[in-house]
Amino acid sequence: MIEDKIFTKQRLINLSIIITAIWFTWFAQNFFDEYTVRIINNVAIFIILAVSYNLINGVTGQFSLEPNGFVAIGAYVVAILTVDAEGMLYQYDIEDPSEWILAMQAEFIWALLLAGIISALLALSLSFPVFRVRGDYLAIVTLGFGFIIRILAINNPQITNGSLGINDIPEFSNLYWTGGAAILTVLAILNIIYSKYGRAMKAVRDDEDAATAMGVDTFKIKTLAFTTSAFFEGIGGGLLAALLTSISPDLFTFFLTFQLLIIIVLGGLGSTTGAILGTIFVMAGLEWMRFLDEPMNLFGYETEGLPGMRMVVFSLILIIVMLFAREGLMGKKELFELKFFKKKKDVK
């Protein structure tokens, strides 16, 4: 009976959060200024990337460094399918685009879904060699994958326009697209985490050998997490391309993966709520702190602009947070698991 009450309370909390998120998406799109909307768009896209990356790295405990590769694939798929043939002929300067590239056209929704599917299929094929290793070796293998994708993008100008990248991508990423995709991603990931597959992922994270001894097919579980994560990373990459309207290989360096790693560690490895909070803290916080790079009046004393000062302050804040919250802002807990949302009977 108590478990049923707890489950009902969790569903009510989740439903209220979803309704609030939908309302905020509509309100922000219609009443916020263009600059603020763009920041929220960026935050929503990185929520998709962080939550999906957290599934393989935090929930399943596999130290993977591949996100930049799958994000790049998603971005290029959407760019190639949405830019018309005339636009490609105009901007492909290094080498003429392939005929099959010119012939490929799709509506944005189908391009976005295809970006996720192609990323997921590639992840599925990679899982066979990748999950033959563990720990640091897994990190090195997946890190190499990200470099390979970037090099292929540079060295195949007939497909990707090489180092020049693809410009004039139609801008579809308004808050209805990015916010809606972020909400659906969070719902999908949470449903996986609280299913039998999610429990198996946590078992693999806590002790893979013990999970194997208890009959868990660890390869299947890791592959499921890896493929699901890649699917949503491809979706996020496609939305990022449609938001920026211009992409190049330099956008998908290891720095993107490192940024996502900071977000999920700061929020708490294994916590979807933590990944969301970490994204807001990092992406929105860095934008808010831009005033630190500009000239300021401190107690009547005019200071010169110090470019990069916000990064110094942000780094200090990260150090302080990690010193006093060593498991991140949320640890492994979700929002509805906090004591604030529990009654004494529920805790018992």
Fill in the keyword field for this structure.
348 residues; mainly alpha; ABC transporter involved in vitamin B12 uptake, BtuC; two-stranded antiparallel ribbon; 71% helix; globular; membrane; ABC_transp_permease; branched-chain amino acid transmembrane transporter activity; Branched-chain amino acid ABC transporter permease; LivM-like
What sequence of helices (H) and strands (E) makes up the elements? HHHHHHHHHHHHHHEEHH
Strand content: under 5%
How many domains? 1
Q: Could you name the CATH class?
A: Mainly Alpha
CATH level-two architecture: Orthogonal Bundle
Question: What's the total number of strands?
Answer: 2
Strand order of the largest sheet: 1-2
How far apart the termini lie comes to 12 Å
Unreliable segments of 5+ consecutive residues: none
In CATH terms, what is the fold-level topology? ABC transporter involved in vitamin B12 uptake, BtuC
Structural class: mainly alpha
Report the total helices. Answer: 16
What level of helicity do the residues show?
over 70%
What is the 3D shape?
A: globular
Q: What's the main sheet like?
A: 2 strands, antiparallel
Q: Using only CA atoms, what is the Rg?
A: 21 Å
> Whole-number average pLDDT?
86
Organism: Arcobacter arenosus
Protein name: Branched-chain amino acid ABC transporter permease
Transmembrane segments: 12-29, 35-56, 68-88, 108-130, 137-155, 175-194, 224-245, 311-329
Main location: membrane
